[in-house]
Amino acid sequence: MASSNNYQPVDATITPRFGDIPTFMRLPHVRDPAEVDIALIGVPWDGGTTNRAGARHGPREIRNQSSFMRKVHHVSRIAPYDLARVADLGDCPVNPINLDDTLERVERFFAKVHAAGAVPLSAGGDHLMTLPIFRAIAKDRPVGMVHVDAHSDTNDRYFGENLYTHGTPFRRAVEEGLLDPKRTVQIGIRGSIYSPDDMAFAEESGMRVIFMEEFCDLDVAGTVAEARRVVGDGPVYISFDVDGLDPVFAPGTGTPEIGGLTTREAQHLLRGLQGLDLIGGDVVEVAPPFDPSGNTALVGATMMFEILCLLADSLAQRRG
Ligand code: MN
Ligand code: MN
User: Fold this and answer.
1) What is the whole-number distance in angstroms between the Cα of residue 50 and the centre of ligand 2?
2) What's the pLDDT score for residue 138?
3) CA-wise closest residue to 260 among 241, 246, 250, 242
4) At what angle do helices 263-271 and 212-231 cross, to 10 degrees?
5) Which one of 9, 216, 248, 265 is most buried, counting C-beta atoms within 10 A?
6) Which residues have C-beta within 8 Å of that of residue 195, sequence separation ≥ 6?
7) Domains in the chain, ordered, with CATH?
8) Nearest-ligand number for the alpha carbon of 153
9) Nearest ligand to the CA atom of 51
10) How far does residue 258's CA lie from ligand 1's centre (Å)?
């Protein structure tokens, strides 16, 4: 499927990488999802945040830092723009002061992308945004998930009543039949919890929870093997919460937890997922107001490129 007609990033030998308008990976901004195989989408919303807000500013800064990304993965040698038509679809519509309206807007936007046959890779935004994405792309059948995060995000309610926060998306997704808990692996979970049974839903529903301590015992290779065993051959989504990383590497996030993955471990972990039947992904919780150096946004952009390479390879495998 290699094609020189595919969209390409702005050529850095003609326009330097610090110049011009920052789109994701310096790709063209294309509005019609039918024109792409992989849609890069910003979701600038953080109304599901329970502590430090700011992830609404994530997409713009990730776009800026993504100008550091080149065209070919240096380990796998995957060249995503030769394998697939990839472009920046811009930001998904959101309502900054209305959660229910935002859930509907995000679902509608991603449903159009899905109906056009494009695979979504988004930059958040807070982690609640994965729920309306699942409502759009997983309504036909539940999907599996590789979930990197310090938090399980399977809480029930917040302040007694709110069903929708960035701490609840995966409980809701299981309840709605969008996410198969038995094909879900959570990696890097850690930090103090509200009560001893905080992890009950994840564990009783059958999710494979790899706490940070077990990750250290298994190491990356053992974790990759376990993740691949859990998700199997079916469709899989990669959801990467940047707070899964240690705040030394990614301080710009709303709910930091020390003792996390290094960027190098996360890169090796993602590379180990090559060959899965990948149907989408996201990088969430990059909060530029807490990221004075811009490094968290660079980390977000780099993880996005890692996932993009996996998606392009998976797409090429499906096409045969
Ligand atoms: Mn999360
Ligand atoms: Mn988290």
Assistant:
1) 11
2) 98
3) 246
4) 20
5) 265
6) none
7) 24-319 (3.40.800.10)
8) 1
9) 2
10) 15
pLDDT in tens, 91-106: 999 999 999 999 999 9
Please name which ligand lies nearest the alpha carbon of 240. Answer: 1
Residue 141 reports pLDDT greater than 60: yes
Calculate how far, in angstroms, residue 167's C-alpha sits from the geometric centre of ligand 1. 7
Going by pLDDT thresholds of 50, 70 and 90, the confidence category of residue 1 is: very low
Ligand 2 centre from 218 Cα, in Å?
21
Give the DSSP letter of residue 245. B
185 vs 230: CA distance, rounded Å: 7
Which bound ligand lies closest to the C-alpha atom of 150? 2
Q: Give 237 Cα–ligand 1 centroid separation in angstroms.
A: 14
Two tokens, residue 20:
């011009």
Q: How many whole angstroms from 138 Cα to the centroid of ligand 2?
A: 22
- Please report where in the chains the tokens 């308008």 appear, as a residue: 21
Q: Which of 241, 267, 268, 239 is nearest to 252 (CA)?
A: 241
Rounded CA-CA distance 176/283 in Å is 22
